[in-house]
């Protein structure tokens, strides 16, 4: 037997009546209902399945197995009588969103093929994310032009045809996604934009998509992975981004168009403040170095953040006068310390081991000098170091 795919001919229908042909236990322990016909699109060709109810019971997944479509549900098997007639209802908002996003992907892939000689290498349409993998890397300008042209296809409100062709007929047509299929081939045609073999429901006119937005493009497997959104999902995304920008204008008390320069100024100010603090800490460190008793064996200093060179010079200075643990810890108790330690009369790596064992510190080095970072307070570090000698 074969489940008739009602969604092929009637992608806009939301409700249907069908006969229950079989009720099975699925591999994942659910009830699987097989009907003579269905509006439920199964998970197939990179697209997630339809949601909805069957006889009032929620359908948790829809799978395709050869010619059969299996509706999975948590309802017990005896909820469905073999041979009986049952009512099915699909979640229209979810379905229409998938139709908008899938047709949007065809437009982008068709334009990539037509104008950039770049094939679609992979496609994934989940309930919240849509990705498209291209064969080639595109420049920023090419991506912008691709997106603009895709939206112009929407403004043109072109028809979208979905039709089955015999293998012989299909051989005479130039189309994308040439996978070897045993039966007739279903082609989705957007005149002058795209012809692609595809099993999914699509919108009837490109205008129904509303908007196509490429929200992210990263290099991927020699080409690119584009994250794309169409229709309501794109609208929701853009609305959210607008709200975020609006919040930023309030936080920074700046106009939208000045946001970037305002953030840059703020970062510059923060960096200057940090450098000033480092400079002050360097002066403070010089004072600390003078305070240490030359006769002491260990010489350990805790100081606010200083740069690496200042810290290293201070350790070398300490090591020229003391034989024990000569260390400078730069940072604070809350964020932790970066340390550089030397031990002229011993092995600095042993000191590093103490910090690693006691405080899970990171770092290492040679017998002469170790460096790393530790998340612990000044007092407990000193206690651990003094406890050794
Ligand atoms: Zn498709």
Overall 3D form: elongated
Determine the mean pLDDT: 95
Q: Give the number of domains.
A: 3
Distance between the first and last residues' Cα: 84 Å
CATH class of the largest domain: Alpha Beta
The ordered H/E elements are EHEEEEEEEHEEHEHEEEEHHEHEEHEEH
What binds here, in terms of ligands, is:
zinc ion
User: Helical amount among residues, as a percent range?
Assistant: 25-40%
Largest β sheet strand count, sense and barrel closure = 6 strands, antiparallel, barrel
Q: Structural class, please?
A: alpha+beta
By CATH's scheme, which homologous superfamily of the largest domain applies? Threonyl-trna Synthetase, Chain A, domain 2
Beta-strand segment tally: 20
CATH architecture of the largest domain: 2-Layer Sandwich
Using only C-alpha atoms, the radius of gyration works out to 33 Å
What is the element layout, followed by pairings?
Blueprint lengths: L3 E2 H4 L5 E11 L5 E5 L1 E2 L13 E3 L2 E9 L2 E6 L11 E6 L1 H25 L3 E6 L4 E5 L5 H16 L5 E5 L1 H5 L13 E6 L3 E4 L14 E9 L2 E8 H22 L6 H33 L7 E5 L4 H12 L6 E7 L3 E7 L5 H12 L2 E4 L3 E6 L3 H11 L1
Parallel strand pairs: 1-4, 16-17
Antiparallel strand pairs: 2-3, 2-8, 3-7, 5-6, 5-8, 6-7, 9-10, 10-15, 11-12, 12-13, 14-15, 17-18, 18-20, 19-20
Helix pairs in contact: 2-3, 6-7
The structure holds zinc ion.
The site of zinc ion has 5 residues, from helix 2.
